Amino acid sequence: MYQYLNLSEVNQALAAFKLYSDLKIEYGADNEVKKIYDELLKTIGEYTKQIDKLEKPSLKEPNDLETIKSLRTDGPRKLWDKIPDDIYDKMAGAVLGRFAGCILGVPVEGMSVEAMRKLAGDTNTAFPPVDYWNGVYNMEGIQYGKTLRKKYTKSAMESVGVDDDVTYTLLGLLILEKYGYNLTTEDVGKAWLELLPVACTAEDVALKNLKKGISAYEAADIDNPFVQWIGADIRSDPWAYACAGYPEKAAELAHKDAYLSHRRNGIYGAMFFAAVEAAAFAVGTAEEAVRIGLSEIPSECALYNDIVWALEKSPEIHNYLDARKAVDERFAGMHVVHTNNNACLVVFGLMMGGGDFTKVISEVVAMGLDNDCTGATAGSIMGALLGKKGISEHWYKNFNNKVESYITGYPEFAIDDVVERFIKLVKKLYGATVIL
Q1: 167, 220, 236, 402: least CB-packed within 10 angstroms?
Q2: CB neighbourhood size of 44 (10 A)
Q3: pLDDT score, position 59
Q4: 357-367 and 371-386 are packed helices; what angle lies between their axes, rounded to 10 degrees?
């Protein structure tokens, strides 16, 4: 796997630089130290630019959709000729499943397994969690400037609290309703400028570049070291919901969205999960859906190989500890919010949980890394597979049919309305074949 840089020597050198700088400033050499410091910053910046220019194009990992399609394995592409009569149950399951997995993960996002265990012990919460947390750290903190963190706990929950993994699903719905199935990356960029007030990592870079007047097709390419991180795949759900039963179309729309902020495996993560989720509406098991998802990305890209590894490794994975150990060993040094390591955790959870919604999201969140994202994705897939009827009521009863967002002009949505609006899009996609 990747041999990431070990910066321990650089960090030691910088620590020594700081110590000597402090000493000489105390001796009165402020101006001289500041001059040397400015030169150091300039030099680091120049080397960073040199690294950024080290582009190694890969015929196995293209960014454009047509070339990606040419490198796929055979797949079903489209699973329905007409919409089945259980579409409402399936759509409600997918939407509620995403919200549940996300909200379960929010209080422990990015925490180590040990820290999550401690929180569970401190709050008398089962671990892995089989219901929402009884308490969280920083109870009075505010998530995305809107929802108190205590509102993500079992006793205080009144709605689906605000989170990016929820907001992008709602934003995708608005984009589809405005631009339709022939939307472009430029359309997505316009919607972001109009509706998205804040963003993180790759999305933040793309949004800032759009505001500078940079084209939507180039917004991912400038000052963006995050292009293979998880941001695009957490945005995959709306394209899947609107293309239920049609994984190829879901992957195409996910590509148009992802291209705004991501490249290579960052794009493939969005396409893969969009296809998996779209397939989950129509197949009987998570493994079937995952294998269909693989057929929508390049067969020799890193993500494809990693997902195949996760499927082959799954018989050895019995719990969250096995999953985390396997991923930490394979992806040593990879950032905790990268696409590939987190995608494998989702696969492990799906394979481990079988048809048990609670076990899947419980184990996936307990695995850690970017676990509000992975919990949301796993919950979405399981919800589409099982339908609302396959999800225990305790996962959604305290949502009270409300979901909060930070989308400009859209502070709150009714969950039932979100479900109906996605179904309306599906009806439009399938046209005259609709049997509802």
Answers
A1: 402
A2: 12
A3: 87
A4: 170
In the chain (436 residues long), the average pLDDT of successive 10-residue segments reads: 90 95 95 96 95 87 98 97 96 98 96 97 97 94 92 97 97 98 98 97 98 98 97 98 98 98 98 98 98 98 98 98 98 97 98 96 98 98 98 98 98 98 97 51
Distance CA 268, CA 61 (A): 9
Q: Provide the residue type at 314 as one letter.
A: S
What tokens appear for 93 in the block? 């399951």
Closest to 403 (Cα-Cα) out of 93, 96, 94, 92: 96
8 Å CB contact between 276 and 270: no
Task: Report the C-alpha gap between 104 and 117 in whole angstroms.
Answer: 14
- CB neighbours of 127 closer than 8 A, spacing ≥ 6? 116, 117, 120, 121, 366
Residues 6+ apart with CB under 8 A from 266: 202, 226, 227, 228, 229, 231, 232, 233, 258, 339
- Contacts of residue 27, Cβ cutoff 8 Å, sequence gap at least 6: none
